[in-house]
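Memo to structure team: turn this sequence into structure tokens by end of day. - J.P.
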Amino acid sequence: MVDPRLALSVFALLVGAMLVVFWPRRGLWARVARVLRLTERVRLEDALKHVYTWEQEGRTSTLESLAGRVEVSTSHAARLLVRLAELGLVQTGEDGTRLTSEGRDSALRLVRTHRLWERYLADRTGVPAGEWHDEAERMEHSLSAQQVEALSSRLGHPQWDPHGDPIPTPGGQLPDLHALSLAGVEEGAVVEVVHLEDEPREIFDALLSRGFALGASFRVLGREGHRVRVALADREVALDNVEARNVTVRVLPEDHKAEGPFETLDALNPGDLCTVIGVSPASQGQERRRLLDLGVVPGTEIEAAFRSAGGDPMAYSIRGALIALRRSQARSIRVTDIVPANSRSRSATGS
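Reply from structure team:
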């Protein structure tokens, strides 16, 4: 007879081994798949986009920057540049590497595919925002021109990706942007976020977790050394200059009021009543659509019904239906005119 403890131990080892091999994005299979996809064509396309990106930022790419971006040696990076030059996509000279007209068109096709796929992930899937960029990096090499245009049509031909970057037209046109980095904004200005840089991911995730989102407006309070202080909704947030440079804003008119502070739905206790102002711009994709489908739109009255045994989620009465929302979801719903339960009870008793 098989010892049950031995059987459980073997089973646990098998499960552990499977997790090591098949864990999404981190397992051995995912790592091998990433290596296998790094064909020379993918490396060439990544190299081309790197040259384009640095040109857009007013910089000239170098062998070292290219090697770091494509994760190859500098000698391999040099061979990539030679091949791109043979294809007529770049020109190299004393002033560095520059794109040709054909090279810029090819790079913009990659950028268009990348940003459309990020738009798709944000609007049509539940993929976390921090993973949009990496997923789009993979897909930009996989979609044909026909598939890209079919995707654009399905999405309604969007003009902006979820980070605020413009999506090139099929002909490669981009709008002129009049914006600046948060690191360069003067004290006292009210600004609106028009772009959040998604690389490096650690900074992007940190910005999202602190409430920065496209469309959010706030006042710049001042500077202390290498840090910028802003009044974001109901709290003060300090960013170092590295983080601030990853937030692109436009300055609003002097008489424009910054957003907030806001009360949010998670502040309600059972029996409290409130009116919805809107959903935070930080809520995107399926999550946002679900809230809107539930009737969480400006003017809707919501009543906090009761908490779950663990305190999260909480049940709310929304347009006659009882809906459970996690605290993180409730925190993205901005509300006003909160009427505490005890006030409503006294009012009912008095009547």
